[in-house]
Structures are given as structure tokens and as C-alpha cells.
Fold:
Amino acid sequence: MAKFSIPTREEVNESNQQTFDQLKGALGFVPNLYAYYAKNDTALNDYLQFQNRETTLSKKEKEVVNLAVSEFNGCRYCQSAHTVIAGLNGFSEEQILQIRSGEISFDTKLSALVNFALEVVKNNGQVSAEGKEQFFNAGYTEANLIDVVFAVGDKIISNYIHNIADFAIDFPIAPELALASS
Structure:
């Protein structure tokens, strides 16, 4: 079986070394997911640029998409990382579990968002007329629709990379939904 490893700063190219230094300065460490991207000479910086693009979605709305898509794709790394980030953005533990389950009862607009994002990912972009209507009736726009698809794409990239490589999770492990609800 293939063994996937996380490169050290010394094992990556100069551009990625600079990015490692920036990440360490900003976050206090280089998350394993980001370090893994650095095995490719351009992927880390390409991904960070994609991930940090300007968006019409609020930080909370982005986290709704991140958590729901990561849960759907079974990515324990991203579930864990975004549980921490969602908490930093003001969501409670209970709200985070609701978001991950795709059943939001605390905010009707975010409920429409999670339903839309999950329809996008579950149906390869084939969102029902009802799903689109609910999304737009909640106050979202076509610009928001585009940004949701970008956010879904962002998470698919990360989810698939971790699901394939299965390297160590360097965030507090998010509870599994079945365990959290019992």
C-alpha cells in the first residue's frame, strides 16, 4: 500500500518554503493539508489563491458550505479543521453539528444555503428547481450561486486529497455525527 508523507520545509521548493513561513507566521503552524500540497511545486500557492479569492459569501456562509460538503465527502480532516474555524466564526458546537448533518433549524437562510450546497455536491450540479427557488427566496443571488459552486469545488479538492492520502489530522478531531447525536 502506498505511504503518503507530509514534506518538511526543507523538502519543498523555495516558493513553497516562503509560503510555509507565511503560514507559520499567520497560523502558528503549517497545516498538514497545506504542506501536502507543497509536494507539487505550484499546487499550494494555486490552492491558497483559489481558497482566498474574494467572495460574496460571508465567512459564516463559507463555513456552512465547507462543513456540509466535507461531511458529505467523508473528509475527517476538513470536518475537524472547519469545526475549529466555524467555532472561531461564532457557531456553537450544536450549530456546527446541525450544519454537518445538513439539517439547520437555527437560521432559515443558512438552511437554504446548506440544502443548496448539498444538492450541488450530491447531484453533480443538477440542482432541482425547488432547490434553486428555495436558495433565491432566502435572499441569495446568482453571484452567490457562483460563489457557492466555487466553495464546493474548493472543498472537493481538499476532501479528495485527504481522502486519498489519509495523512494525520493536526486539528482537534471533530466528533463523528453518529457519536455526537447519541
Notes: Residues 116 and 131 are 6 Å apart (CA to CA).
